[in-house]
Amino acid sequence: MSQVDTSHDAHHGDHDHHGPAPGLMRWITTTNHKDIGTLYLWFSLIMFFIGGGMALIIRAELWAPGIQIVDPMFFNSMTTMHALVMIFGVVMPAFVGLANWMIPMMLGAPDMALPRLNNWSFWIMPFAFTILLSTLFMDSGGPAGGWTMYPPLVLQMGDSFAFVVFAIHFMGISSVMGSINIVATIFNMRAPGMTLMQMPMFVWTWLITAFLLIATIPVFAGAVTMLLTDRFFETSFFSAAGGGDPVMYQHIFWFFGHPEVYILILPAFGIISHIIPTFSRKPLFGYDSMVYATASIAFLSFIVWAHHMFTTGMPLAAELFFMFSTMMISVPTGVKVFNWVSTMWRGSMTFETPMLFAIGFVVMFTIGGLSGLMLAITPADIQYHDTYFVVAHFHYVLVPGAIYSLMAACYFWIPKWTGNMYDEKLGKMHFWISTIFVNVLFFPMHFVGLAGMPRRIPDYSLQFADWNMIATIGAFGFGFSQLMFVYIIFKCIKGGEKATGEVWEGARGLEWTVASPAPYHTFEESPTITPNTVTR
Amino acid sequence: MTDSSAGHEQQASAAQHPRATSKAHAMVAGKMLALAVGMFGFGYAMVPMYDIICEITGLNGKTGRVSIAEAEAAQAVADREVIVEFTSTINASGSWTFRPTTREMRVKPGQTYQTAYYAENLTDRTTVGQATPSVTPSAAAKYFNKTECFCFTQQLFEPRASKDMPLIFIIDPDLPLNVDRVTLSYTFFNSPDANSTASLSPTLTGFTQEISQ
Ligand code: HEM
Ligand SMILES: [Cu+2]
Q1: Range B60-198 has CATH code 2.60.370.10
Q2: d(Cα A223, Cα A240) in Å, to the nearest integer?
């Protein structure tokens, strides 16, 4: 102990590490991984309600056929902004926030590897989103050509397009910096003796996600830069008049875009791989195969992009290649679902809120995976493409998928963050109400989609009216039930039954060996890891 | 140990946290940054790669180009006839008359033919037009070769001027047997540098265009 004390005095002389600095400056200047994690999580919660508000505007307009509430152009910018906010402002930052909070604790590390960079990664985000959202109030309006920003349509947007590109560049810089930090933390900051195959699944999935981010976000940045120069500086990357090709944009975009959808789901896989074993009171079934499945999904995600482009008139050979490679992804995905189910098999299961959300995730994510498989069939996709069926597909994987995993994670770890148990009864209510409404909201979209209702159009023909009305009811129900979530969080921060360090009976991993709430600084002294230490 | 970027912790922390040195962090961060920068470059590299792939595969209906010597060397196939149809489209941004002088030709693969498209500038300004070709079915695209085409270069028009723009083509005798009808379609655009009539010099635009024709 004496040795530890000296070394810590020797290099901590100048800053207070026993607790946070007082006041607002704490949050602006902080380099503490827990503070930054908290900031990310609050940021995404706020963005969740902004993006959700946009979704409700969309659904309100679609309550009945005809144009009743908003101008079609504004409707289009709502669909565009809703997607950009939810993807880049909610799901991604929330996962980064969880990574900040949990990865150092799971690895037995005192902090992230590059704490100052970490502060920057976060504080860029509010600026990027202020810029993005402010385009809605500019003369030429917000982006309205869809989140995929296909030219030539997107190039017809007014001058505020420059701000959109600028905002995307900043979000990209933030994500890449955050990812570099995560990779450095995982490679360099593991407690001595912890091997890669002893890392918890959440850490593994984030390591792979970070690589996906570093490899694809710059491609996206390049694509939007090309749009910017086409729009303002007379290049012709995507303009046929100057020898360019608009279809090429789609290739570049989806080369980023498909890995991006896995960026939105791999950390969720990690979270679920913690929660199901905990509440089944069994170690994760098939840990090794989980790691390999995650890596194969990441690898395959680079060679399937053109399944978003089946209708662009690719040659038959390309259609077949992308069809089969896409279907191949369901193999490792299936391995994961199998392992989760096998983990539950004969476990002593209990159904606390995180477990409910996790089981909801497994069931409903699988529904989304199955509709994805249908879309992967080229001749079928020619029918389904750009209909509400696609909307149903990606909302099943993203809402009861990615978003449910985030809810599950919050309920699972909030006792560690606040030291208090959340209100279990309200949590369960939140789960059941959300689950009913989320299906009322998204399931009918399969039907109207198969019947031919196009996406991104504010009006529709009469035969789609009933299901759309039902979906809108689901939307408002789901949206407002999320206020419960906010209430439960505030209630838990203010007080509640005190949580133990372990929180959940038999929970495995280093994060449960520290007190609840986790002290401002954890693992200043490395834990000792032997091959038998339970770290996952 | 909360701030490893401080840099001075190496000796002090060695006993306590042998894992964390700022040098090791800089190594990893540097490699990752290099990957990010490389991938930004890769995004741009996809532009010429795409054009090359299109040219090799004939994907996107991009037609081939051969020299006159090559065309003369080809042997006409006497017992095969293919119908070539010509169509035209004017891009919304332009003010032109643009149409083929012949709608349809019966041709023998391996023999050289000539036809033309007529274009007229309907504005009172000097304007530069650019045509981009596309062939359907796309499987036929790489067998449709041109030795001379108005689409190879940008076309300058004085106000209200008009002209017939020649096209010399040859169908490769290897054209798959199941294809007996090929449609060549041109879209006529206002060239992006239409207003700067003086410069037809190669720009960034010209570069991509060279590859893709
Ligand atoms: C079993 C795995 C999956 C398969 C086979 C699959 C297949 C597909 C296909 C073929 C499309 C294109 C549909 C079209 O536009 O016509 C598509 C769209 C989409 N998928 Fe998936 N998918 C899978 C999993 C996922 C996951 C895990 C996510 C995200 C978490 C996701 C998010 C999306 C999104 C956002 C779109 C729509 C993009 C857009 O056009 O705006 N998918 N999927
Ligand atoms: Cu995809």
Answers
A1: yes
A2: 16
